[in-house]
Write a structure and sequence with these properties.
Elements (H helix, E strand, L loop, with lengths): L2 H25 L14 E4 L2 E4 H4 E7 L2 E6 L5 H10 L7 E3 L2 E5 L5 H38 L5 H34 L2
Antiparallel strand pairs: 1-2, 3-4, 4-6, 5-6
Length: 186
């Protein structure tokens, strides 16, 4: 493995950590309705769990209400049950063939709790990035030990990996700050 391979691998894995953080932050609700909030809710469909989006059409009614229209009439009950039992704290209401999902307003205390969750997700992402930096530096040290590269090349490569890490950590901090601001706006 060459220095370029190590850098490229570290960069791609760090960007995957950032993408994972984006997905995790999108699951944290802010009081406003958006169709992606139900993406990770699983419904039992003919014996196997599938996301709500595969068995129903999810769309916005207004800023605080989602409408879930099942593709099959008999799926309304299981979808409603899955949404109710999810960790989102939502209470769906069956309206004949469709299901309305009102988004309750967040209390100040709940907003503070959600900002703690957001910070925790950000910290987890930073830890992942730092672990990837450590792995890349260990791989560079192994190349020096095997006499594949010089110590000067190793030092330059470690500086590059550190710059990449700093850039990723700054991106994570920016995402966390934006999500906190989004949660705290009433």
């Amino acid at each position: 493995m060459s220095v370029a391979d190590i850098k490229k691998s570290a960069e791609s894995r760090m960007s995957k950590s950032i993408e994972t953080l984006k997905v995790n932050l999108s699951k944290i609700r802010t009081g406003r309705a958006h169709t992606g909030i139900l993406d990770h809710v699983q419904v039992e469909y003919y014996g196997s769990p599938v996301p709500v989006g595969q068995v129903a059409n999810v769309n916005l009614v207004d800023a605080r209400t989602l409408n879930v229209q099942p593709y099959e009439k008999q799926m309304a009950g299981p979808i409603e049950k899955a949404i109710r039992e999810s960790d989102l704290g939502l209470n769906p209401v069956s309206m004949g063939e469709s299901i309305r999902v009102p988004m309750p307003a967040l209390t100040e205390e709940r907003r503070r709790d959600l900002t703690k969750v957001v910070r925790n997700e950000g910290e987890d992402a930073k830890i992942a990035v730092r672990n990837l930096r450590r792995e890349a530096n260990d791989a560079l040290k192994k190349l020096v030990k095997d006499k594949s590269i010089s110590e000067d090349d190793e030092r330059r490569a470690q500086d590059d990996v550190q710059k990449l890490t700093d850039r990723c950590v700054a991106d994570i901090d920016k995402m966390v700050t934006q999500k906190e601001a989004e949660i705290m706006t009433v």
